[in-house]
Amino acid sequence: MLNIVLFGPPGAGKGTQSQHIVEKFKLIHLSTGDLLRSEIAAGTPLGQEAKLLMDDGKLVPDEVVIGMIDNKLKANKDAKGFIFDGFPRTTEQAKALDDLLKSNDDSISGMIALEVPDEELISRLLERGKDSGRADDQNEEVIKNRLKVYNDQTAVLKDYYSKQGKFQEINGLGTIEEVFGRIENAIEKA
Ligand code: AP5
Ligand code: MG
Hints:
Distance between the termini: 11 Å
Order of helices and strands: EHEHHHEHEHHHEH
Number of helices: 9
Radius of gyration: 16 Å
Number of strands: 5
Bound molecules: BIS(adenosine)-5'-pentaphosphate, magnesium ion
Helix content: 55-70%
Shape: globular
Structural class: alpha/beta
Strand content: 5-15%
Strand order of the largest sheet: 2-3-1-4-5
Oligomer: single chain
């Protein structure tokens, strides 16, 4: 199986690029952010709890997102592979993902990290906030908090995958097609 962690800070282009990857490589896209927003839209208790944290740009508890990923992996046993977008975000989540995949004799093929400077991330997210309906895109303070959470709790995962020889960093600036070309190259090497 081809299991790719598409990594990067908020606004790096993970969701955008995942759509192209799914089309070309026929993988299943698992975005914990999208899954949580579906729970919010459905008005579930989980969604209501998560919304309070997401609107402030804070992470939801590890066990919540790990449980969601566990369900999706079990529901897609025949998949050719997965593209993980916005997950894992903590060392705890990365370890849990390794364990879940291992129980199916599987593993992560590689992590691809999109590198984009903070000024560009802020400008992309504020622009999207004008019509995305995402509360966390509409306020520069919340966006800056999301970047801080990424730097404090998530960026450490580059080392986690680097130690396993699974880390590739690519430039996330340029057109969507240019960035996708770099991702394709990285996937061939994963
Ligand atoms: P999540 O939904 O994962 O959001 P995020 O990581 O903050 O980032 P985005 O989805 O905003 O950015 P992206 O990298 O997908 O970029 P996109 O392609 O959209 O998480 C939201 C919240 O949910 C978290 O804050 C947390 O509370 C919670 N959560 C989720 N997962 C969790 C987990 N595992 N653990 C705990 N909590 C979790 O692009 C952004 C914009 O840029 C778009 O408008 C796009 O059109 C534009 N764009 C894309 N590519 C380019 C380009 N090349 N040039 C110019 N513009 C571009
Ligand atoms: Mg996204």
